């Protein structure tokens, strides 16, 4: 059985490395404030942050990134444990749209599913961080073209060391292993004009050391001593050893095959998604007996988040996403959601997608029910949730899949241009939301 992999990094290089090695990870950015993490670590040992050895800095940051994403998964787990309400199951191809075949206690559904899916390993969470050391100084991402130009001219004809910290956690067992890789990078001699042209491409601005070995920067690198993949921000040989220390076979992480990659390519081309859009495991189209293609090889899910009126405690608004024009049914309004990734159940997928698209954090909400539209080979799960008493969700577009996000009064939702399936289901959803009990006021 394939063990899912979670990459706690938004680095395209690391993601491409894993995909080429047969592993398409679920990408979860950590949101770690790197300077703050290093400052706190330095304070504990009584030194300045820049006095910490570079090898130690990357280890600290890799550990912090993995820990941050681990906490997110713990919050998702708590949201599932605290879930309440009912799950409504519809099989429209058999019973007609709008019909409900079964109603079950959601806690029973979740506990039954969890009991069936008990695993000894995984998902495997990988946290990494890289810094380039030159003349004893650590260099992260330059961000600014002038900084990149200055750094690259300084290393012309010289060598430096690329350090990468790795922290790997088996979320099933909680075991954690760490290690740091390093590779010596030797640069050729080049002119200021060469580097000005290179910097103008933008490629070196968001990578440690201001260079890449897998892109246009490769022409300026004369040699590497150490793991070539380590220079791209993740040492595959070292990662394989760390995974082995957790008792996991490297081959058990492989989830890339030709058929799925064709589906990913179809997904990218058909939706005309931005080139930098991250495709997660589970992205792709499913041909359905209803005559349509549906998004999500493992099904799809989203969060219908409700907000209560402060005076009555009754639900008064829902958070909706105005979908990007390039997406399926672009320009319509619906709930934040998307394809369920490999190894996720529908609630986990809905909570991940709703954070990516709308900044809905699992610790700020209560799951209060679900609605499953099951087409047989594909299903969509709408997760009903409401803000926790005393907590607020602050919508923010964390990716490029939205035009805008808005709290919409219940009685105004039907006036929007709604996503087809959501519009069809909205009258039943409206009635269900109206029937939820009033939320008790926050105790002061």
From TrEMBL:
Its main location: cytoplasm. The keyword Phosphoprotein does not apply. InterPro entries: ITPase-like_fam, Maf-like, NUDIX_hydrolase-like_dom_sf, NUDIX_hydrolase_CS, NUDIX_hydrolase_dom. It catalyses: a ribonucleoside 5'-triphosphate + H2O = a ribonucleoside 5'-phosphate + diphosphate + H(+); a 2'-deoxyribonucleoside 5'-triphosphate + H2O = a 2'-deoxyribonucleoside 5'-phosphate + diphosphate + H(+). It holds the Pfam family Maf. Its cofactor is a divalent metal cation. It is found in: Cytoplasm. Its EC number is 3.6.1.9. One of its GO terms (molecular function) is nucleoside triphosphate diphosphatase activity. The active site is at 129 (proton acceptor). HAMAP family: Maf. Belongs to the Maf family. Nucleoside triphosphate pyrophosphatase. May have a dual role in cell division arrest and in preventing the incorporation of modified nucleotides into cellular nucleic acids. This is Nucleoside triphosphate pyrophosphatase.
């Amino acid at each position: 059985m394939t063990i899912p992999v979670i990459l706690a990094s938004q680095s395209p290089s690391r993601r491409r490395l894993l995909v080429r090695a047969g592993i398409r990870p679920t990408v979860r950015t950590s949101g770690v404030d790197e300077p703050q993490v290093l400052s706190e670590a330095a304070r504990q040992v009584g030194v300045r942050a820049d006095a910490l050895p570079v090898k130690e800095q990357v280890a600290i940051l890799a550990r912090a990134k993995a820990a941050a994403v681990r906490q997110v998964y713990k919050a998702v787990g708590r949201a599932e444990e605290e879930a309440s309400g009912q799950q409504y199951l519809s099989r429209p191809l058999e019973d007609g749209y709008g019909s409900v075949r079964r109603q079950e206690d959601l806690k029973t559904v979740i506990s039954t599913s969890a009991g069936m899916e008990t695993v000894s390993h995984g998902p495997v969470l990988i946290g990494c961080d890289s810094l380039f050391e030159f003349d004893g100084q650590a260099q992260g991402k330059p961000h600014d073209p002038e900084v990149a130009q200055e750094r690259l001219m300084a290393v012309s004809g010289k060598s430096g060391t690329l350090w990468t910290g790795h922290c790997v956690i088996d979320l099933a067992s909680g075991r954690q292993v760490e290690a740091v890789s390093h590779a010596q990078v030797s640069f050729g001699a080049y002119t200021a004009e060469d580097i000005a042209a290179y910097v103008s491409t933008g490629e070196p601005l968001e990578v440690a050391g201001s260079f890449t070995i897998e892109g246009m920067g490769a022409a300026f690198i004369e040699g590497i001593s150490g793991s070539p993949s380590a220079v791209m921000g993740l040492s595959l040989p070292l990662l394989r050893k760390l995974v082995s220390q957790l008792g996991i076979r490297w081959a058990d992480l492989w989830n890339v095959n030709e058929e799925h990659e064709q589906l990913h390519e179809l997904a990218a081309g058909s939706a005309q998604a931005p080139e930098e859009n991250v495709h997660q495991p589970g992205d792709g189209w499913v041909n359905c007996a209803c005559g349509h293609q549906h998004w999500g090889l493992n099904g799809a899910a989203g969060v219908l988040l409700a907000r209560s009126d402060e005076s009555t405690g009754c639900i008064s608004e829902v958070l909706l996403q105005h979908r990007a024009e390039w997406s399926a049914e672009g320009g319509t309004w619906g709930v934040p959601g998307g394809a369920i990734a490999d190894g996720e159940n529908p609630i986990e997928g809905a909570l991940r997608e709703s954070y990516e698209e709308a900044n809905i954090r699992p610790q700020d909400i209560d799951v209060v029910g679900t609605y499953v539209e099951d087409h047989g080979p594909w299903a969509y799960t709408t997760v009903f949730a409401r803000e926790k008493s005393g907590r607020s969700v602050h919508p923010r577009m964390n990716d490029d899949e939205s035009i805008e996000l808005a709290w919409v009064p219940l009685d105004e939702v039907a006036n929007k241009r709604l996503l087809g399936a959501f519009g069809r289901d909205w009258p039943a959803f409206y009635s269900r939301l109206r029937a939820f009990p009033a939320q008790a006021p926050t105790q002061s």
